[in-house]
Amino acid sequence: MTHDLNVLYDNIADGLAGTGYILLENPLPPKLLVGLLVNLQQQKTALMPAGIGRKEGYQINTNVRGDAIHWLAPGVPAVNDFLSWMDALRDALNQRLF
């Protein structure tokens, strides 16, 4: 597993250092994705329209952003696993790119 993650991290770093972006097919472990989906379904919370700006400047503008979001809150095992995965990715990219 560690070898696979190192290869993934290397590929992401190479793409970012080269073209500035990378497209990945299924980079997250399926168990992690299922956990996040189950968490969202259990909350019975609809995705909310994404907005732009902060505080008084916050607004919904579908010409700028037409997506929907759901904020992840630590404390739920699936969310904690995802946040740990993302922290590991951040650490790996910092090691490879800086």
Instruction: Work out the strand percent.
Output: under 5%
Low-confidence stretches: none
Counted by DSSP, the helix tally is: 3
Proportion of residues in helical segments: 40-55%
Mean pLDDT: 91
Shape: globular
What features would you describe in this structure?
Helix content is 53%, strand content 4%. The protein is built from 3 helices and 2 strands; from the N terminus they run H-H-E-E-H. It has a two-stranded antiparallel ribbon with strand order 1-2. It is globular and about 40 Å long.
Give the key terms.
98 residues; two-stranded antiparallel sheet; 53% helix
Task: Explain the layout of strands and helices.
Elements lengths: L1 H17 L11 H14 L4 E2 L18 E2 L7 H21 L1
Antiparallel strand pairs: 1-2
Please give a quick description of this structure:
This protein is mainly alpha-helical and about 100 residues long. It is built from 3 helices and 2 strands.
